[in-house]
Amino acid sequence: MRGGLPIAKPPVLLALQLAGFLAVVGAAGGLRMVWTPDSLSYVRASRAEELAAALAHYRTVGYPLFLETAGRLGAAQRPVPWIQALVFVAAVLAFWHGLRVYAGSGWFAFAAAAALPFAGVMALVAMIQPDFLAACATLLAFAALLLLAAGRSQPLAWVGLALAVFAAYQLRPAAAFLVGFVPLIGAALRHWRGGGGRRAGVFTLGLAAAMLVPYLSFCALRWATVGHFGLVSFGGTNLVALAANFLDEELLGELPEGHRRLAGRLLHQRQKRGWEPMTPGADTMPYLVQYNSNLWRIAVPAAGHEIAARSREAVAAGEEPDPRNLRIVRDELLGGVAVEILARRPRLYLQWVRDAHLYGLAQLGDDAALKALAVLVLGSLPVLVVARRRHRRGPSGRSAAGRPLLALGALGTGYFVTYLALVSLVSYPFARYFVSTTLLLPSVLAAALFEIWRRILVAGNAAGRRLRPTSAERPSPAGATRAPGRGS
């Protein structure tokens, strides 16, 4: 059969691999619903009956909406893991297609996409929380971005990119960094694909518009509905869980009067637990561990008491208390305190950010798939060096052939570095956050391994052709005669 057996085609093999992978995971019980400490809050948010209540919640609307929809397909949230797994399959196939078009090689794209089921984020597939679906939405966004960067500027790809990024940050607010990341990496991808000049500028502006218009429109909707301009009212709460570690009596006296009482509540609760303030040069790890307690057991209750006190004071003064939703007011109060603390302790904040980064990077060594792929890549590099030295006259590989790997490497590592930086600035990369940042790293290593061995084989084949005798050099079969003039 011309072109080989259909089963040997990259998309068929990828589909079979994904089906087999899910079958094994399902048979092993890996798709049984898992509840986490955050799960109930998403379920409760899914029961919001009014738009204002949904937009004022500290959870974005994406995952509660997904749970509400999925709950209609079966008892409670039981179908969720299977639905999430099927969305992942669709996202991987879409990513393969986008990378195939961009790279011009179905097998290169296969090498990258086939590694995705071994990404660390797969550990979250059965959990009732949004991180896994947000990773799927990111894959779909990158699939559309690769198509556009390759010059396939169909309206469907533009709409798909905008919707996928919108879905990603509605599922996980941290994914809002894609609004800035996509135009920048998209411009680089287009450049490496050979698209430059005036069209490159128009393309980048188009990406910026596709990112900003939905984001700003949603923020404006929240402003008009609940009185807060932003994606969600939780950033200040996250930040104070970090900043509370720096509080001591000296810092409390430095804070403005309007923030001092709330900060005093935070400090008092930490002192009741016997927790010391973080100091320059101290081991940051104990304070990373205190992050969640700072958030839920200290900051949120303290803000509730502060809001109640301010409401009583407003009534006593004949004024109206803040009419906005309690969650929005709470987040603004906590965010204000956090900013004042960090402004007065920048050295401690930089220490936190540095150590949070190091904590995240150290987790790379715990990922078995990444370690295995890294070992294979490093072990293959000497073989490539030897192959090139032995066959110097063969193709060097220094051409446009390496650009797809450069592009994928920039996309995967850029996503990792940017996401890790964002998380470290407002929180720290504990396991659930960290595995999301490494989404494309297995693909980068697998594609690098594919490209290394492709070049090794190309060098070997080129050497074989040079050593193979030509028709003029081959001896004639016994008894054969040559026509006059041929081979002379």
N to C succession of SSEs: HHHHHHHHHHHHHHHHHHHHH
- Low-confidence spans: 394-398, 475-488
Q: Main β-sheet, in a few words?
A: none
The proportion of strand residues reads under 5%
Shape: globular
What is the oligomer described by this structure? Answer: single chain
Q: What's the β-strand tally?
A: 0
Total DSSP helices? 21
Q: What is the rounded Rg?
A: 28 Å
Kindly report the average pLDDT value: 90
Tell me roughly what share of residues is in helical segments: 55-70%
Report, as a whole number of angstroms, the end-to-end distance: 40 Å
Structural class, judged by helices and strands?
mainly alpha
Descriptive overview:
This protein is mainly α. The protein is built from 21 helices and no strands. It is globular, with a radius of gyration of 28 Å. Residues 394-398 and 475-488 have low confidence and may be disordered.
Q: Any descriptors?
A:
0% strand; 488 residues; mainly alpha; 68% helix
Compact summary:
With 488 residues, this protein is mainly α. 68% of the residues lie in helices and 0% in strands. It has helices at residues 10-27, 39-45, 51-56, 62-71, 80-103, 106-114, 131-149, 155-171, 178-192, 198-226, 235-243, 249-254, 257-272, 285-289, 291-316, 326-344, 346-362, 368-390, 403-426, 431-437, 441-467.
Which SSEs are present, and which pair or pack?
Layout: H1 10-27, H2 39-45, H3 51-56, H4 62-71, H5 80-103, H6 106-114, H7 131-149, H8 155-171, H9 178-192, H10 198-226, H11 235-243, H12 249-254, H13 257-272, H14 285-289, H15 291-316, H16 326-344, H17 346-362, H18 368-390, H19 403-426, H20 431-437, H21 441-467
